[in-house]
Fold this protein.
Amino acid sequence: NAGVTQTPKFRVLKTGQSMTLLCAQDMNHEYMYWYRQDPGMGLRLIHYSVGEGTTAKGEVPDGYNVSRLKKQNFLLGLESAAPSQTSVYFCASSPDPGFFTDTQYFGPGTRLTVL
Amino acid sequence: GQQLNQSPQSMFIQEGEDVSMNCTSSSIFNTWLWYKQDPGEGPVLLIALYKAGELTSNGRLTAQFGITRKDSFLNISASIPSDVGIYFCAGREGGDNYGQNFVFGPGTRLSVLP
């Protein structure tokens, strides 16, 4: 099993450009998440999904959109990138939060710089 | 959103020493997770805790789910250079405020001196 994978690993954008980050998981997990990590801020939830075809806003959703068309994939879109979106983006997945199975697994991250 | 409190923020220890760090919350949690993040990598799950008072080990790592359900502790025994990294706690709220998502602590940065 590859676990959680993210594409691309690095990206540099100019202000106003758009891009899509892809997350894929092969663990048949229902829940998927997008976080951003900034120095001194810890992990902040952008959007999440509790199943195929569903999405919901997290703590910092502005400027981002997401889609979960297939259970194994969760896409994060930036329609018009801004320098404030320079960050490291992590995708994560988890099974249903049942007793003794409540965990969350992370991908390796995408480092995005917006100039 | 709520964030957990972690202490210490950073620590420098000698190789071979034991390490203790903790994580606290203002609300009751059903699940506690401990992660380690190496530079340039994603967080890797170390230990998961599901029951108040539970003590779980993973090699030289031991973590405990606090009796009050508002805190958790991580201990590393006989530290080695590869223990260097940032340790994050994460938890899911329980009780009447069952949380949809995990909340994370800001991390404890561990440095091991040879």
Q: What stands out?
A: Chain A is about 0% helix and 50% strand. The mean pLDDT of chain A is 92.
